[in-house]
Amino acid sequence: MKHLFYSLIVILLLCFYNIAKAQKFEHLADTPAMGWNSWNKFTDYINEDIVKGTIDAMVETGLRDVGYIYINIDDSWHGERDGKGFIQSSPKKFPSGIKVLADYAHSKGLKLGLYSDAGYKTCANYSGSLGHEYQDALQYARWGVDYLKEDFCYTENINPIGAYTLMCNAIRDAGRPVYFSICEGGYNKPWEWGKAISHSWRTTIDIQNNFESVLSIIDQQEGLRKYAGPGHWNDPDMLEVGNGMSVHEDRAHFTMWCMLAAPLILGNDIRSMNKETAEILMNKDVIAIDQDKLGVEALKFSSENGLEFWFKPLENGDWAFCILNRNKTPENYIIDWQKFNLKDDISQRSINFDTIIYNLRNLWTKKSEGNTRGKKKIVIEGHDILIWRLSRKE
Ligand code: GLA
User: Fold this and answer.
1) Residue 124 Cβ contacting ligand 1 at under 6 Å
2) pTM strictly above 0.90
3) What is the average pLDDT value for the chain, to the nearest integer?
4) Among 3, 6, 82, 342, which one is most buried in terms of CB atoms within 10 A?
5) 59 pLDDT exceeds 70?
6) Is 184 in the pocket of ligand 1 (CB under 6 A)?
7) Which protein residue's CA is at the shortest distance from atom 7 of ligand 1?
8) Out of 3.90.226.10, 1.10.357.10, 3.20.20.70, 3.40.50.720, which CATH number does the structure's domain 24-290 have?
9) How many angstroms separate the alpha carbon of residue 113 from the centre of ligand 1?
10) In CATH terms, is domain 299-392 a member of 3.40.30.10?
């Protein structure tokens, strides 16, 4: 019994030591990460040509220049481990190897990311990092990898905090600054422990390519905004913009991710996206809401008949304000600004529409739309959103 007691103390001390030692690389995510990931569109059917074509498209479309810099290869890039246990890429899908792709991405001003898993297999049944954490981190560093998403399939009884701390330490010891993204579906409340060891953590299970899934993910962010900030973000999953939802839905999805200060990781085929998709993904004014340096997520102020009213405080004293229409049908509404006076405990900022007048700039039409002096009549299409930047009137 005594033995067991002392062993438990030793294990606990080791755990504390491991966590205390953990140190992620700082300043890799002062604002939410922006990039692309292969999974939503290509799942297992990913290969070197697609990734190379995506790197080219990132530059040619202008996506890189508005801030999307990560090219992340998700699950199923893996081959067998070599005789010493080092992971290799699939010779069939990635015949030139990951280093060549990383070099190519870097030559275009982009960064390359990979996916692994804290268990013995990835979710798609490839070799996981369990027991190979230091070797994997070393291999990624040798290849010039800049971003690691680590999943949590096939982990059985592994403690998630310990597992992610271990990988964080392995990355640190390998010496190359790598953005570390925790992906365990939000089951173990990573927002409570992820800040010291990662740059973002998934808050939910996988997004699906439909608006119900988008709404459900938005609902699941409730109560989480206090955990996010510069360097450590809630991740409501990768974008589905351009994968088949309507333009209204895509716009609402994208705007809400920006209001939530979410990592903006594209999930569509950017080599062949249409004009509407490109316009959504490259709306600099909306991206600026996501990338605002204050780093505070929007708060849901209220909801009324399927309309939701969200406010996000911005660095220069402005606010982003949006109205999300969850209904399938268009809605008419009259904004009575005084109803929205608010005090945000997290940012310590407040709005008093009785004493301060704000100018309104519509971030999708790019038009100035008067100010908050009088009531404002609006119509919002079904499954759509309106967003304004509110700037104090001089
Ligand atoms: C999980 C993750 C997804 C994707 C797949 C790959 O489901 O949440 O984002 O990485 O695994 O197998």
Assistant:
1) yes
2) yes
3) 96
4) 342
5) yes
6) no
7) 206
8) 3.20.20.70
9) 14
10) no
